[in-house]
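Subject line: Sequence and fold of a protein, written as structure tokens
Area: Proteins and the way their chains fold up in space.
Start of record: The labelled sequence and token lines come straight after this line.
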Amino acid sequence: MAPVTSITANVHQRLTDALTAALPETVGDPLLRRSDRADFQANGILALAKKTKANPRELAAQVVERITSGDLLKEIEVSGPGFLNITVTDRAIIETLAARAADGDRLGVPLKEKPGVTVIDYAQPNVAKEMHVGHLRSAVIGDALRGMLDFTGERTIGRHHIGDWGTQFGMLIQYLIEHPGELAPADEVDGEQAMSSLNRVYKAARAVFDADEEFKERARKRVVALQSGDQETLDLWQRFVDESKVYFYSVFEKLDMEIRDDEIVGESAYNDGMPETARLLEESGVAVRSEGALVVFFDDIKGKDDQPVPLIVQKADGGFGYAASDLTAIRNRVQDLNATSLLYVVDVRQSLHFKMVFETARRAGWLSDEVTAHNMGYGTVLGADGKPFKTREGETVRLQDLLDEAVQRAAEVVREKARDLTEDEIQERAAQVGIGAVKYADLSTSPNRDYKFDLDQMVSLNGNTSVYLQYAYARIQSILRKAEGASPIAHPELELAPAERALGLHLDSFGELLAEATAEYAPHKLAAYLYQLASLYTSFYDQCPVLKAQTPQQVENRLFLCDLTARTLHQGMALLGIRTPARL
């Protein structure tokens, strides 16, 4: 089915045609915005009148004379210094919504004209270490952005740049060589057991490393063996990676996220390509030798002493750091994966690092106007007191504990409201509500801002929470089940109440909002749209009886609005990675 043109776009075109007729030498491009009463205003006339030195009210009057109304426009009036207040017809609203309803899950939303390939770097845990609250935002934001981009027709490729390389592995591997049997095979443990085993080995290895100088020296030599490809060392390193993956998958499953094994491409994957990256940068003159190290300088990046702060590609001792790994990853993603966009969902505190990495890649020709990179920097998760989220003992909160508590709190809310749910159903809904609450609290905040992790607020039935949206969806499903033979059928001939118009116009704007939110990498804008949709539906529900409407046609039309609202809520929440249970 062809995409559905929104009412806003149709009105925009009518105004443009009328302005072009009124001022044939100037292509009109009025700026539209929806007013509080769900009608339209065009204030572009004021700017155009100033540009052409015309009287704005007279220009507005000329537009009114030339605009074609048909079934789209109900009323046009000039107000103030030259505003146009435009009211669309009830028929136009319902007919447009009917076309959206007929388009299945896409709801009339068009695909991108020229989709590209976006590689999203998100959800980056570390091998042999527990995931904590600091890992939450990268996973949740990245997963939502991927869902939104996929819906537009963009091809997305996930990359989970896990920390699986470096000096700590010399310590871990050497300890395992000297204490065989400490680490159970990955296929014999579940997520909790895997992390318990890894924690035990890490703590024991660290204790020996700190106390025994001879062991410390053996561990350092083991790092060299790892980097040089010694098979025994690599085999033991792989055991740490495999067991860590078992743990990672258990946490991501609890987060209701799909993580594909072939998309877990850690630092180690770029190890062999880093010397080539360094060579290319040095031969091209992008990087230079300074005090034995290979570095890149930037005119606009200086330290406290006003001296240039370089990006270190290769250290003086020949070792490579994060910059070499990230630059090699860019080469791989552009040249091998044919990426047109690189999206990094990384802590905002790494913004300077990625600014230097991206600029270096541009100088080297790996990034260009056709191949872009964007750092989706995100803020910190704070406690309810506004301070960094810690346990009472001052330790970083384990992500698994945080998710378990959210589900437990959600179970209390669901059980309190449940009328016809079994205990198993309550637990199933609790997971959907609790995890949804955690995700939505994150996604409804602008990514670059810090946000407070407050479970009391997150699982509240009131306010801007996923629980409010989920209960709005469940309420609609309950109404549809009680319809007793009446079906959702659009009736364009009916007059709409103000609450019906407001809801209908907001439903029609889903595609335009989604396109804007996706282009700006702004999942919080989609969350805000969905919250407003649920709020408008609540007003509609309060003001417009559905099953007790005055006529059978009105019942069907209001059921139609209910059904399309539910489908839009379901699709929008799904793009954010949040479930919408039909019964709560």
